[in-house]
Design a protein that fits this description.
By secondary structure, the protein is of the alpha+beta class. The strands form nine sheets. The chain has an eight-stranded antiparallel sheet. An eight-stranded antiparallel beta barrel has the order 24-25-26-27-28-29-30-31. A hairpin with a 2-residue loop joins strand 34 and strand 35. The radius of gyration is 27 Å and the shape is globular. About 3% of the residues have low confidence.
Length: 669
């Protein structure tokens, strides 16, 4: 086994690899950029070396610098994690030339599967079924347009070197093909340095099912069952689960055999994922087609670990060190059901626009550490709730890297139990300071289509009415959270000197405090009435317009924990309240809301004078303008395209008008 390895990545996967290496007695070296000086993965490793500026091309994509660090620190191997250099053939070859083990497949296997077009040709020879399409090398736009007509719309344009949903466009009409092709190639060039694409028939109501495979250097190869990754937005995964609902034993064996055949066809070693598109046929069975192979560990690997009881990172390290696969195919079995939710910094109600900001509050549900043992034998009791995160409270999510904050993984004896645990765990996940998709994930988990396993990659779009732009927490509950902080000290102050109390006590008569609270874009007046009497005798009242509710609140746990047991009229429940300045975040069992408790004096004299400016929704780089000064534009018209967090975002005109001036140029940040 290795004595020291370098982890050529960041975030939760770097922390994950460091934890497994430590358990095996392996020392670790972290690399970090300017943006990650105090990052969790840096603290998780035994050593850390700075490699460059925040932009990935200046740090985590600098293969030469990373390899130099590995040599200088005496690392015997490099673990690439996922993303960045994990599927970079040149980096794998450079490691081998330097006598350092690349913890991944051979460079030739990466090359064979790195091009979607070449991989499909190889899979066709291996007898793996393919989606009808064009996988050739000629990318002349006119030829591609003719091939799309031959295949039949809708079609899917995909970056040949792509992954993670980048460089991918669905096209429903011939007249939209040219623009979609240009956008797809531009994004592919930016993300992968290669604008080659392929065109395939778009499978209506497809399911995305992938098989985890593992090979060793002694010719052994097996699969660790399937994962269903059908719930996606913008071709990027949102929820993943294992095993796939409705999968028959016969189809599982067939897909597993096809995945192993694909891996063996390229002499695969290490962890990999063979991805399939599947569609239901008339008898309810699944017809499947090879889509691509990811020559690395996948983000969603924890659900496979949960149902098999294995540590896949440990398997990677053992196989890379020349050991055989720890188990045979007939020794593997599925236990229970697991689901992973990707918690991301993004605003689902604004088209899943990535968000940036500081996590002022970060609270995870109570969870049991995922148990693993040293000999990789299956575990009988996976952890019911697991959190994989590379960030902590006070950390910031910036524009340079992926928007994923963490992964929340649950396990249950049945899918129904796993669903219930996931809903409860998401309800107990509190993040304040930036937009996240936590509330959206709860709505997905609760929606009928997901609960009944009516799965396909268009689920989110199909269920927009119940998943997006839903009203937040009821205003009276949100307002109750604001006043709970005032009432929460009541019990602690009952016997205190009345002149020192902060709960609204008056010597004569009652007290009334007025608030202006902005909730979901609407400002409402709220009053808290405190009648005369001692705390034990008093009945406070929440007033909103003509409505009135008796209210009381009592803090739970340590001071400043933000938890309150409240009684509002006849309902008793627990609220979590976090306040930073005027902003107050309130979490209830059914939903959450972010309010603004307006300080009228602080805002006196302010006025809105934005003029005609169009503001970018987040930091990024301008990559195209579709207008010039003097142009007349209409509301909703595309004006510019910017790139942020590895994705393209189009800015549209907020209203009719005339473009007066462009204040930036293409390439500006």
């Amino acid at each position: 086994m290795f004595k020291k390895i370098l982890i050529a990545n960041r975030g939760e996967i770097a922390c994950r690899v460091a934890a497994t290496a430590r358990r095996l007695g392996i020392r670790t070296v972290a690399v970090y950029s300017d943006a990650d000086v105090g990052a969790r993965h840096v603290m998780a490793c035994d050593e850390a070396v700075h490699i460059g500026a925040a932009a990935p091309r200046d740090s985590y994509l600098r293969a030469d610098r990373i390899l130099a660090v590995a040599i200088a620190t005496g690392a015997q191997a490099v673990h690439p994690g996922y993303g960045f250099l994990s599927e970079n053939e040149g980096f794998a070859r450079a490691c081998a030339a330097a006598g350092i083990v690349f913890i991944g497949p051979p460079a030739d296997a990466i090359a064979a599967m790195g091009s979607k077009s070449a991989a499909k040709t190889l899979m066709e020879k291996a007898g793996v079924p393919l989606v009808p399409g064009y996988h050739g090398q000629d990318n002349d736009p006119a030829l591609l347009a003719r091939e799309a007509e031959r295949i039949g719309y809708p079609v899917l344009i995909k970056a040949s070197a792509g992954g993670g949903g980048k460089g991918m466009r669905r096209v429903d009409r011939a007249e939209d093909f040219a623009a979609a092709l240009a956008s797809c190639q531009r994004e592919a060039k930016s993300s992968f340095g290669d604008d080659h694409v392929l065109v395939e028939r778009y499978v209506l109501r497809p399911r995305h099912i992938e098989i985890q495979v593992f090979g060793d250097s002694r010719g052994g190869c097996l699969h660790l069952f399937e994962r269903d990754c059908s719930v996606q937005r913008r071709h990027q995964k949102v929820l993943e689960e294992a095993p796939a609902p409705g999968m028959s034993a016969e189809r599982r064996a067939e897909m597993g055999a096809a995945a192993v055949a694909a891996a063996k066809a390229v002499g695969y070693v290490g962890a990999g994922t063979v991805e399939f598109i599947a569609e239901e046929v008339d008898d309810g069975d699944l017809r499947f087609y090879f889509m691509e192979m990811n020559t690395r560990l996948q983000v969603e690997h924890p659900v496979t670990e949960a149902i098999t009881g294995l540590d896949l990172v440990e398997w990677q390290l053992r196989v890379a060190a020349g050991q055989p696969l720890p188990l045979r195919q007939d020794q593997l079995k599925i236990t229970g059901h697991a689901i992973e939710a990707r918690i991301c910094a993004e605003n689902p109600d604004a088209g899943f626009l990535p968000a940036t900001g500081r996590m002022d509050v970060l609270r995870w549900p109570d969870h049991v550490a995922f148990r693993r043992n040293a000999d990789s034998e299956p575990l009988h009791q996976p952890a019911p709730v697991r959190v994989d995160a590379g960030v902590g409270e006070g950390d910031a999510i910036g524009p340079n890297y992926d928007s994923m904050i963490a992964k929340l993984i649950v396990w249950g004896e049945t899918r129904a139990q796993a669903l219930a645990r996931l809903d409860a765990a998401l309800a107990a996940t509190h993040i304040v300071g930036l937009h996240t998709n936590v509330a959206f994930l709860r709505r997905v988990v609760r929606c009928t289509s997901f609960a009944t396993a009516e799965l396909d990659t268009a689920l989110i779009e199909r269920e927009r009415a119940v998943l997006l732009e839903q009203p937040p927490l009821a205003f009276e509950l949100a307002a109750a959270g604001v006043v709970a902080r005032l009432l929460g000290d009541e019990a602690a102050l009952t016997d205190a000197d009345p002149w020192a109390r902060r709960d609204g006590w008056r010597l004569h008569g009652g007290a009334r405090r007025h608030f202006d609270i902005e909730h979901a874009g609407v400002v409402q007046a709220v009053a808290l009435a405190r009648p005369h009497g001692t705390a034990a005798e008093a009945r406070s009242e929440l007033q909103i317009g003509t409505q009135r509710w008796p209210i009381s609140a009592r803090p739970v746990g340590a001071a400043g924990a933000g938890q309150y047991d409240i009684t509002l009229a006849d309902r008793r429940l627990r609220l979590w309240v976090y306040a930073q300045g005027e902003r107050v975040a309130v979490f209830a069992p059914e939903a959450s809301a972010v309010l603004r408790q307006i300080d009228a004096i602080a805002h006196a004299g302010e006025s809105v004078a934005e003029g005609g400016r169009l503001t970018a929704p987040m930091p990024g780089k301008v990559i195209a303008f579709m207008t010039r000064p003097g142009d007349k534009v209409s509301q909703g018209q595309a004006l510019a395209v910017m790139e942020a967090m590895k994705m393209e975002h189009t800015l549209h005109a907020p209203r009719d008008g005339v473009v007066a001036e462009l204040l930036y140029a293409v390439g500006d940040r």
